[in-house]
Each structure stands twice: as C-alpha cells, then as structure tokens.
Design goal:
81% helix
C-alpha cells in the first residue's frame, strides 16, 4: 500500500539521487512501447475491416485516423518512458510508487488494447463502417485518459512530480 509518507520519502530519496549519474536511455527503449501501440492501432482496424470484406475506402478511412490517434498517444508514451528510464535502475526496482504507477499504466494499456480490438471488430461488422469505429474510439480514448488522470491524481504525486521535473530539466541541460 502506498501512503502519502511513502511518496514523500521516495521523492526525497529521488532528489538525493539527482546528484548521481543520470542515465540517458537509448531511443529504441523509449520508443518500443509506442511502436507497439502504433502497430496495434494500425493492425486492428486493418485486419478487422479486411476480414469483414469492407471496401478499401472504409478500410483506409478506419486505419488512417486510428494511426493518427496512435501517433498522438505515442508522443506521451515516449516522453513518460524516457523519464522513467532516466531514473537509476536500482531506484526503479525498489520504488513502491513507481511499481504502483507501472502496474496502473500496464492495466490501462491492456484495457485500451482490448477496447481498440473490440471496437474495430464491432465496427467492421456493422453497416455504419469506419465511422462506427473512429467516433467511439476517440470518445473512449478521451474518457480513458480522463479516468487515468483522475486515478493517478488521487495519490497527490506533487512531490514526486517536482523531483521528476528536476530530472527533466537536468537532462535537458538546465540547472
């Protein structure tokens, strides 16, 4: 169980670790989850609409916006992953706060992947075509992002966030 005291103590520990050698993760390690998401966002509608025998225009009009939404989400994924991988590995492994966040991110990612698959299968087999996929996908994505932010916001991670911002500014050459 993560308490406010745990968050404060780990934030203080993280501030102390800032003086140590900060790792700059490889680009591929940061981008890999984003590439997997993008591939999923392309393959689900492409395969679903193709297997349902939809016209090529429907297939492309479902896959294009889905890929674009995947790119938008990928920017956040790469940013968050680069910050996470910049932390010393021993801190990443021992932190209860990071374990909690990692577990929540994995759960939301799996939920989103299943949601994309279900929406693409349902839309491909409906008479409405690609709009039956794109409109619910955008709505569900926005709702999932709001829910995720509210869920993470419950922990009042301001101390932890300020330490991460310090890390980010040092990574970019500030301070």
């Amino acid at each position: 169980m993560v308490t406010h005291m745990t968050i404060k103590s780990e934030a203080a520990q993280l501030r102390e670790l800032m003086g140590e050698h900060l790792e700059i993760p490889s680009f591929f390690l940061c981008v890999r989850p984003a590439l997997l998401l993008e591939l999923w966002m392309i393959l689900c509608p492409l395969t679903s609409f193709w297997l349902a025998g939809q016209r090529e225009s429907e297939l492309l009009s479902a896959t294009g916006p889905s890929a674009f939404l995947g790119i938008l989400l990928s920017v956040s994924i790469v940013n968050g992953r680069s910050l996470y991988l910049s932390l010393p590995s021993h801190f990443r492994e021992s932190s209860k706060v990071l374990a909690l966040i990692r577990k929540k991110v994995e759960t939301y990612a799996r939920t989103f992947a299943v949601l994309v698959l279900i929406l693409s299968l349902l839309a491909a087999n409906s008479a409405l075509g690609s709009m039956a996929y794109i409109i619910p996908l955008v709505f569900c994505t926005v709702m999932l992002v709001f829910i995720f932010n509210m869920d993470i916001g419950r922990y009042r991670l301001s101390a932890f966030t300020s330490a991460m911002e310090l890390l980010k500014s040092r990574k970019q050459g500030g301070e």
